[in-house]
Amino acid sequence: MDKSQFNVVLLPGDGIGPDVVNAAVKVMDAAAADQGITLNYQTFDAGAAYYQRTGKSIDDAGVEAVGESDAVLLGAMGLPSVRKADGTEIAPQIDLREHYDLYASLRPCLLLPGVKTRLDVKHINMLVIRELTEGLFAGRHDPIPESDESCSDRLTITRAGAERLCVIAFEQARLRKAKQGTPGHVTLLDKANVLRSNAFLRKLFDEVAARYPDIGSDRQYIDAGSMMFITDPERYDVVVTENVFGDITSEIAAGVVGGLGVAPSGDVNDKLGIFQPSHGSAPDIAGKGLANPVATILSGAMLLDWIAEKQNAPAAAKAAAAIRAATGKVLASGPKTRDIGGTASTDEVTDAIVSALNNATVTA
């Protein structure tokens, strides 16, 4: 296969997952066509509905195809009413993280034109990097004794896990500085004053920081840092933190820039990337045309950037840039979905972004 064709696995999942994945595919195809590249899709079942039918969270063929793909676009997984015997939800996205050792979640939070924030700020552009394979998720499969009196979870930080997390944080800061003109700064959020595991994480962060003299660094306690996400979000460039802390703080950051409907993400290792909106499956609005497709469309742009980097395909990077520009143009003037102050449907927003792409091509 030449560098103009790429294999993308689609995992639409549950609830609004299919709605937003379909929207993103329309936009990605339009942008790719403008750049002379083709995205070849394979779609596989995964999620709570699939679990109800089969007793498995994801199609076995889908797991294999993910590893053979150039990139993956995932919609949303899980339904609140569908639980495993231990009371937890069906989460194939976490299964895939563990299976393929996807150790970092990249979660950009950018204040987009036309999207209101409750804060008195004009410019927010931060990247929250959440560790995915250890931290408080490390003991997810630990056997636990049956008890009605207590239950515990294990928090583990390893040198290997922390070092690679910190390296990707500093590399992303360096990349953002070169491409976007951001400050080139990494902040670690931890609880090193109380938790020994986090004190160890801080030690390793400082060791990695010493290798990047061109990138600034800081360490803050998670409680103070979470407050400053609200009181002073403009101070942050790249933020890196433990698994559960990252899960929480990335959603705070998303809320600051308009909500989960405009928050893309990518779960990555050094070779594989799975890109997805940060929001959940929202089954109450599934199929009603109410879902905001922007987070998934911007996740599609991240996917194309990933392909550009890993496959040496500059046309894919141009397609990604075009998607972001078209999305920003539409958000600035409308239409927008109701979660960010508009009245438009999923399809209306999607079609407007495709139209903006086409008009940009005509006028270029």
UniProtKB/TrEMBL annotation:
Cofactor: Mg(2+); Mn(2+)
All copies of domain Isopropylmalate dehydrogenase-like, residue ranges: 7-353
Pfam families, per database record: Iso_dh (PF00180)
The keyword Metal-binding is annotated on this UniProt entry: yes
Keywords on record: Manganese, Metal-binding, NAD, Oxidoreductase
Key word DNA repair present: no
PANTHER family the UniProt entry points to: D-MALATE DEHYDROGENASE [DECARBOXYLATING]
Record-given protein name: Isocitrate/isopropylmalate dehydrogenase family protein
Organism (species): Paracoccus marinaquae
